Amino acid sequence: MTRKYKPLPQLTGGIFLTDGGLETTLIFHKGLELPHFAAFDLMRTVEGRKALEDYIEPYIAAAKAGGFGFLLDSCTWRASPDWGSKMGYSAEALAVVNREAIELLVETRERHASPGFPMAISGAIGPRGDGYVADALMTEAEAEQYHAWQIAVLADTAVDLVTAYTLTNVPEAIGIARAASKSNVPVAISFTLETDGRLPTGDTLEDAIRRTDEATGGAPAYYMINCAHPDHFQHVLDSGGAWLDRLRGLRANASRRSHAELNEAPDLDAGNPDELGAQYRALTRRYPKLTILGGCCGTDHRHVACIGRDLSIAA
User: Fold this and answer.
1) Between the chain's N and C termini, which has fewer beta carbons within 10 Å?
2) CB-CB neighbours of 106 under 10 Å
3) Strands annotated E in the chain
4) Is residue 9 domain-resident?
């Protein structure tokens, strides 16, 4: 039986906050080891699950304080076949961890959601390769085949949608969108941008969105920007165009460093939470369709709390 999905609450009006840099927070602030940046591996133990539960609570508190909704993202960004194999997971074990990660979010939603505090559950997926570098590019068909397995597993859970984060290239975005369509699950596409506001492949954001929409019949529910500081892409948004109507979410980095610099840095550049909050306020005033807001590398609950505070002031 084909599952019928409800309209996504984050697209029906109002702001939805989400979390920050899950992996960088767990590694640098919590002192946890995440081989291959794979937070899903924490699901193996009671202590790991508790760490994931504790991690999300201050973000939810920030959303409640501002009167916003909240988007719960699963810890499954790395829980796809190639990365799971590197971690020693069988296909069966990997399917289990994807399902259990969503169950953990269902429990969280049951504790917090109310008519006045809407929450949506997103099954997070990531690129087959590096989220910073456009290496070993797949064809659209190869990308669809690769991601179809994880998307099908997530579509059979309580997710409201799947979200593909840190995508570096258009063919992978197209393949993911097509796989999601075949699994009948809504999908959001989030592109990594470099310091020049372009994808690591050199494509403009406008072209990436346009090509993905044209190749999939507009299948993605919406698009997002992630893994770049606002200073890196402000000029891209200022260029204008109808394509901006498809851009609904933002998860910026705390740091102005390039991806190469972040990869080589021994420390965590947390930037300035107050400054980031002010930049989000300015962006949402200018581009009111940006309503799904959180952080990426280097951000934590302080950044999202500042974003929520400044958005409340703007309202």
Assistant:
1) N
2) 14
3) 16-17, 69-73, 119-125, 161-167, 187-192, 222-226, 247-252, 292-295
4) no
4, part of any domain:
no
Q: For residue 178, what are the domain limits?
A: 14-314
Kindly state the DSSP code that residue 246 receives in the 8-state scheme: G
Q: What is the CATH number of the domain that holds 96?
A: 3.20.20.330
DSSP class of residue 197?
Answer: S
What total of structural domains would you count in the chain? Answer: 1
The answer as to whether 300 is a domain residue is yes
Structure tokens at 45: 């133990």
Assigned domain for 3 exists? no
List the structure tokens of 48. 């790991």
Instruction: Taking the CA atoms of 55, 228, 174 and 170 in sequence, report the sign of the dihedral they define.
Output: negative
What pTM was estimated for this model as a whole?
0.96
**pLDDT by residue for the chain (315 residues), tens digit each?**
578 888 999 998 899 999 999 999 999 999 999 999 999 999 999 999 999 999 999 999 999 999 999 999 999 999 999 999 999 999 999 999 999 999 999 999 999 999 999 999 999 999 999 877 887 799 999 999 999 999 999 999 999 999 999 999 999 999 999 999 999 999 999 999 999 999 999 999 999 999 999 999 999 999 999 999 999 999 999 999 999 999 999 999 998 988 788 877 778 889 999 999 999 999 999 999 999 999 999 999 999 999 999 999 866
